[in-house]
Amino acid sequence: MSSQEHIEQTLVIFKPDAVQRGIVGEILTRFERIGLKIVGMKMITPTREQFFGHYETIGKVKTRRGEDTLDVVLNFMSEGPVIATVFEGVEAIAVARKLIGSTEPKSAAIGTIRGDYCHVSYGHADSTKKAVANLIHASESADDAEQEINHWFSDSEIYDYQALNEKFIR
After folding, report:
1. Handedness of CA 43, 150, 67, 108 (dihedral sign)
2. Which residues are catalytic?
3. What is the DSSP string of 88-126?
4. By the 8 A CB rule, do 32 and 170 touch?
5. CATH number of the domain where residue 134 is located
6. CA-CA distance, 11 to 145, in Å (whole number)?
7. Which domain holds residue 126?
8. Does 158 fall in a domain?
9. pLDDT at 70
10. Does residue 169 belong to any structural domain of this protein?
11. How far apart are CA 59 and CA 68, in angstroms?
12. Rounded CA gap, 78 and 93, in Å?
């Protein structure tokens, strides 16, 4: 197995709560610090249809958790702009998810992004009929990453370049 087989790309979306709280730069630094390279980035205000494509066509939220849950997620994600990023690195999908922490912020370990920057529980979100404000979405698998990157970025928006630190981290 060659070293290039371990190089992956993953989609990370900074959700409206991260953008509105003004902590995107601080969180972005954590991805770069561990050696993930930004190969795509843009701030956008997606349409509800684009979010539906992401959360249902790819993520199957309605299929898995019901229409009410999907509506709550779509409403939350439509509250403001998001920053979509593509990171690349050695086993980038697993590394990003480890850095981000558990989907439920209350359960996320201290030291992870969600463990350090938010604390909402599923119970609270359900009782208030709000989305879990957990700052970030990250691809769960290689298949999801490929579909999600293609959903959010064109080929011309993904960059290939040599980062100076690659000789140490790849």
Report:
1. negative
2. 137
3. EEETHHHHHHHHH--SSGGGSPBTBHHHHH----HHHHH
4. no
5. 3.30.70.141
6. 6
7. 3-153
8. no
9. 85
10. no
11. 15
12. 25
Q: Mind spelling out the 3-state secondary structure of 130-158?
A: CCCCCCEEECCCHHHHHHHHHHHCCHHHC
pLDDT of residue 1: 47
Asked if residue 159 is part of any domain, the answer here is no
The SS3 assignment for 62 reads helix
Per-residue tokens: 110:
């201290």
Q: What are phi and psi of 126, to 5 degrees?
A: -65, -45
Answer whether 10's CB lies under 8 Å from 96's CB.
yes
The pLDDT value recorded for residue 3 is 58
Please tell me the total count of domains within the chain.
1
Cα–Cα distance, 31 to 96 (Å, whole number)? 7
Q: Kindly state whether residue 162 falls inside one of the protein's structural domains.
A: no
Q: What is the mean pLDDT of each run of 10 residues along the chain (170 residues)?
A: 79 98 98 97 94 89 82 92 98 98 95 96 88 94 97 97 87
Paired tokens of 148: 């999600």
C-alpha to C-alpha distance for 87 and 66, rounded to whole angstroms: 30
Using an 8 Å Cβ cutoff, are 106 and 119 in contact?
yes
pTM of the model: 0.92
